[in-house]
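Design job #97: recover the sequence.
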């Protein structure tokens, strides 16, 4: 049950980050889960362990890390889209 709970929490974190940034992460549900996991790692590196922990994720750093990740990925995707149209 621990892995399933981590997948759910990672997906919710990735989904919330997409809502906050206003951009969807490519890949749907799987993309949200990946963004949540990478965001959790990135936030842990940047901010450490702070706030409540759910499913192995410290929520505040994971959400901030996922927001940074979604913003960077959306900028990269947008620049690639412009390059392909030109």
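Job complete. Output follows.
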């Amino acid at each position: 049950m621990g892995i399933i709970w981590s997948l759910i929490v990672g997906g919710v974190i990735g989904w919330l980050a997409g809502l906050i940034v206003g951009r969807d992460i490519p890949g749907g549900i799987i993309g949200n889960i990946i963004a949540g996991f990478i965001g959790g790692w990135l936030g842990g590196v940047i901010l450490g362990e702070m706030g409540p922990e759910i499913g192995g994720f410290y929520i505040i750093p994971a959400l901030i890390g996922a927001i940074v990740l979604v913003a960077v990925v959306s900028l990269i995707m947008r620049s690639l889209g412009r390059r392909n149209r030109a």
